[in-house]
Amino acid sequence: MKRINIFFTKIVLAFCFLTINSLTYAQDFSVSKIPSELLKDANAVIRLDEESFEILSKAEAKQRNRLVVTILNEKGEDTYNEMVVRHDKFTRISDLAGNIYDADGKLVRKIKNTDIKEFGYGVIGNDITDAKFKVIDFSRKSYPYPYSIELSYDTRDRNMMFYPSWVPTNNGKVSIEYSSFKIKTPVGFAFRYKEYNGASPVKKTVDTDGLPLYEWTMRNHAVLDNMPYPLPENEFLPRVLTAPIAFEIQEYSGVFNNWEDFSKFYYILNKDRDQLPTGTIAEIKSVVKDAKTDREKVLLLYKWMQARSRYVSIQLGIGGWQTIDAMTVAAKGYGDCKALSNFMAASLKQVGITSYVALIKAGNEAKNNLDFPSSQFNHVITCAILPKDTIWLECTSQNTSAGFMGSFTGNREALLVMPEGGKLVSTHFYESDENAVSRITSVKLDENGNGQLSVRANFKGMQQEGRERLLYSFTKEEQKKWLLSNLELPNMELENIEYSKTDNRVPVVTEKLRIVVRNCATRTGVRLFVKPNLLTRQLALPNSSKEQTADFYLPLSDYNFTDSDSIFFEIPAGLKLETSLPDLKIESIFGTYSASAAYDNHKLFYLRKVTIKGGRFAAADYPKWIDFIKKVRKADRAQVVFIESKT
């Protein structure tokens, strides 16, 4: 893993390691030496990025890194003015140092111990861990741009489940002058690696000490074009993944040739940690005593588990991979994703239901390179196996519905952990009609165009996730503030807000609103202009007008949905219809859109439905996508016009 700006996520299985050693290099880092093409659109330039991983044995390795970055502006400084270095019982930091250079490459400051702060990991959240981290402060806004920072670091690591990956560039505005990744091994030592997305092929040589050396490099890499719909990073950023074949950690040893091996090792690491206290077993039996089906047992026990436990990130023991046993979770009432998932599986076992924990990469649109078995997971969930059903269970949330994976763990592969060796299986894929909003709105307009709105909307699937947060995590005032910021209505006043949730496999959050909107319709002289599409989200046009030269990706969490609106307007007496809307239908490979309006007896009825299908599309289809957006946006701006009646 790279070592810059480590962002800590809520749910973590294992941490990367970072350390720094003393600087012993001298080199000209003046800005004048940077090729002009690397300055274009860049906020920072990586002048030198050297990462060396030396495998000493199946049980131990050491790593050396050196990084030099020229910061060109405030945005570049936002990224690089502070570094995070983590260490624990498996990773030892030997030294720490850094330098700062001016635009001419002259040394202006050495990093001192007073610039380095150390914290226990628990200070950043609800965590229990034996890890600590150091924060290296480069004194934000203390130096005129451009200036350069330099770091180097060493580690000694005894957790050989993980080998580093190399992703030399990112999708930000950072260019690279030179980056290298080296792995040195004992003679005859084997490991696995694979290059992706145009990463340079490995160069195999022998180091000065006669040991095998593998090297990958990148030179003069300009800032990537910021395309509006980039592919997932694992599909377009150059990278090299590496993994052990055989490894040791403490008293455990394992092999890692395929996913079955990895699953088997995780199973052995956590074997027999599913025992439960007698009292808890009795409680479990009581919870399900009236259940008529296995599915009902799963749902009851999941609700019971949610009510009696809470999530705490726990990174103790073997690299954070060995779970706290179910006995402890039963007694304490808390655990991390591993522990809570293990506790859930242990509880299901007591009522005769087969289940397994599963390793998965969690996060919105999180993607793995599953053709290369390696440690790419960061979360654990539970999978209950019924004769004609499979129920996925997210055990770290008190509010998630049983079976719902959503944007966090849905639409991807998970690795089942089984005694005989696991296998990759798919979590639920959420189709457009499962991520739906169905809204009914009644609007009473006065003669000046002011409106009183009564809204009832059902948010389903991934579209209910935001509303679920409003329901469970926001106060009434916070709900009101959020809605005022996100509903695209001018001059509105929220008179009432209500939320409720239905716990289905694809859950539904119901939103009820009463809203007063000034100038809901526009009065101009004798005419009233009504824009019937009031509350639906608008498809945004990309800011960039660049030609799309590569495949593009519409994220499923944003572009796999169906929105349906039924709006009923009560038109003031004294007005008659002047112009209405024709029925409209738009069809595309990206989805469909339909809208229609009808008027009768001072009532205007408007129906709108749009279905979008996300995913990967060819560059040749990009103009069709832009055309589809433009047509939908034009249709959504259409107006119905009323005029004063003279009779």
UniProtKB/TrEMBL annotation:
Keywords attached to this entry: Signal
Origin superkingdom: Bacteria
Endpoints of the signal sequence: 1-26
DUF3857 domain span: 62-221
Segments crossing the lipid bilayer: none
Gene3D superfamilies assigned: 2.60.120.1130, 2.60.40.3140, 3.10.620.30
SUPFAM superfamilies (alphabetical): Cysteine proteinases
Protein's recorded name: DUF3857 domain-containing protein
Organism whose genome encodes this protein: Dyadobacter frigoris
